[in-house]
Amino acid sequence: MSKSAFLAADWPLSDDIVAGTTLRSGGTSKGGYAGFNLGAHVGDDSRAVADNRRQLHNLLDLPNEPTWLQQVHGTVVVSAPCSDAEPVADACIANSPGTVCAVMTADCLPVLFARIDGQAVAAAHAGWRGLAAGVLEATIDAFECAPDRLVAWLGPAISQSAFEVGDEVHAQFVAQDSAAEASFAINAAGRWQADLYSLAKLRLNRCGVTAIFGGEHCTFTERDDFFSYRRDGQCGRMVSLVFRRN
């Protein structure tokens, strides 16, 4: 499989840190999962998913199997590697080389982290529920360093123009931080267009993380490159991962 199946994180770190998000192109899945689906929980043929995961290993020369999570839009952060095969969590952190942190998305925001010295990396799954609950803050707290020693990359997510939400979502964020008002725009139907990228940056900045990269894609509109649950309903999943080579 070509390297074009992977969107590498554009952050200023050593080449020893491998990070980015898989694209939809390639793979062996069919139908609504067509392409490089890496989600084993979405109804796709298990043999196709297993083959796609083998292709992922070859594509990136993975040193180990990624830490696959059972994501529930919460704030639990696990340390990888862990004894559970698929822990219930929405973020993972690794302090040793060769340990692959991963999260799956198909509109939600994946956020990858690394210490600037490369000694620890993490991946977080941040849809609006996870953002509001504090998954990014929990991930930052899991690092044993000051937040200004971290770099974050915002992987592909649904953009503001495609992400309509109700009053309850808007109210929840604004109640937590009035500055979140700037991340919402009222639409013609009287509902809200939410900017996940902007909300994430606000929270990262509040924690002291200022080296933030990425955040320019839209999973909903860029149909050829990304799966989108809001656009298609039944669909595959991309994986965003980060690890330090041995």
Describe the structure.
This protein is of the alpha+beta class and 246 residues long. It has one domain: CNF1/YfiH-like putative cysteine hydrolases (4-Layer Sandwich). 22% of the residues lie in helices and 24% in strands. The chain has six helices and 13 strands. It has helices at residues 46-60, 128-133, 135-142, 167-176, 196-207, 229-232; strands spanning 6-8, 17-22, 77-80, 91-94, 101-105, 109-115, 121-126, 150-154, 164-165, 184-186, 192-194, 211-214, 238-244. The protein has a six-stranded mixed sheet. A four-stranded antiparallel sheet has the order 1-2-13-5. Strands 9-11-10 form a three-stranded antiparallel sheet. The model has no long low-confidence stretch (mean pLDDT 96).
Structure, briefly:
The protein has one domain (3-158, 208-244): CNF1/YfiH-like putative cysteine hydrolases.
Task: Give the topology string: H per helix, E per strand.
Answer: EEHEEEEEHHEEHEEHEHE
Share of β-strand residues: 15-25%
Secondary-structure-derived class: alpha+beta
Q: Helical element count?
A: 6
Q: How many strands, which pairing sense, and closed or not: the largest β-sheet?
A: 6 strands, mixed
CATH superfamily: CNF1/YfiH-like putative cysteine hydrolases
Radius of gyration: 17 Å
Q: Which quaternary structure do these chains form?
A: single chain
Enumerate the strands of the largest sheet in spatial order, edge to edge or round the barrel.
3-4-7-6-8-12
Helix content: 10-25%
